[in-house]
Amino acid sequence: MAKKKITQELGLNDQTPREIVAELDKYIVGQDEAKKSVAIALRNRWRSHKLPDEMRDDVIPKNILMIGSTGVGKTEIARRLARLVRAPFIKVEATKFTEVGYVGRDVESIIRDLVQTAVRMVRKQRTEEVKEKAAANAIERLLDVLVPEPKRSQNPLGKLFGNADTESTPPAEVDDTKKPGREFVRKRLMAGKLEEQVIELEVADHAKPMVGMFSGSSLEGMGDNLQDMVSSLMPKRMRKRKVTVANARKILEQEEAEKLIDMEEVSETAVELAERSGIVFLDEIDKVAVKGSSSGPDVSREGVQRDILPIVEGSTVMTKYGPVKTDYILFIAAGAFHTAKPSDLIPELQGRFPIRVELKSLLKADFEKILTEPQNALLKQYKALLQTEGLTLDFKAEAIEHIAELAEHVNEQSEDIGARRLHTLLEKLLEQISFEAPDMVKDGKTEVIIDAAYVDERLKDIAKNKDLSQFIL
Known about the structure:
Helix content: 40-55%
Shape: flat
Largest sheet: 5 strands, parallel
Order of helices and strands: HHHHEHEHHHEHEHHEHEEEHEHHEHHEH
Strand content: 5-15%
Number of strands: 11
Mean pLDDT: 79
Oligomer: single chain
Structural class: alpha/beta
């Protein structure tokens, strides 16, 4: 019962759709349709958990396909969603995976990574639950190091010569302040007076993972299992480290927490959490779409779609924590679909993404909002960066409007890369100031005003020259 309660606490986001959209609005400008679809999908996950058991098993999540050019906010929605939800979340690019039999990652590794994320989440929560007990145990172990038990003489000839009763020479009387007792040291430790003292600590030597071993697509899971098996057979090696008391407390608290946590129960809970509440954001899905009928390397791309299909529609994937059913995992796919269309995906895969949302291209008004409104807007970032040098940037309203107008113009004239265009324009605009900032402050200049005239001066070549490729990537 306790396990089920914990799973629900982690797996559910109890925010209303309006609250989720409001949270996404802090970081993403526009794209209300996409935000609403994501918010409804999250709320439906919460609703399905409230249904009776016999009905809940029949309610499967409605997967979402987001369509829009690069830089309009698809990936940013995924990033912010990951921070928002209390559920296992993983973002992957479809281009990383290949058809079984080709060199590359196996699509089933998506689910393995999702379960690994769930294990980390559950383990973190369990660690929080035993935090106080682990801290108390760590203090006792620290005291064992700071106030060691007196050692007795190990002379093997002592008993032969009748010296068994005098194994060690009685210590000379020592002032209590010079050789404090355990309780005295405990008080000083709790008061934080020993934090910088260096001690020698015996800790477990964790072997580094064998990166790259068994990295082939079909052997990926086997590599994980073999590595775990070898590490469990080998005895735990210990080594001595010299650390401060403050660092020693952290190390010991972690070790004690691991002893108190039942990893088998963590694994079971994590698998259930991933199955019922997992979210997979599958980016660049358009790159595996095949336009028309073709042969050659494109066959592998269609193979990736065929391999993704059973995972999206519901199958069982073997992981090192046990079998995982993918029937109730929510999949959100996204792609620019410049050269391909959603209809170029295989029909079976299209049918698994019933909700389709088209993200709109950004206009001048959107660029103005992106520059100023989000919580960590671009202009705020540049101001903060140069403020570290002691230089204050002041952007006039006319300058912001002009930058937004240029971004829209350049996107129309060349490739539309959305909000990423602002990065390149601002870097070009502030290049000279960023270079000269330390010298300007030394000369007593602490403020720079960016107006429309300055924007014109720095970006006039971009505005006039039609062959923009030499100026903007």
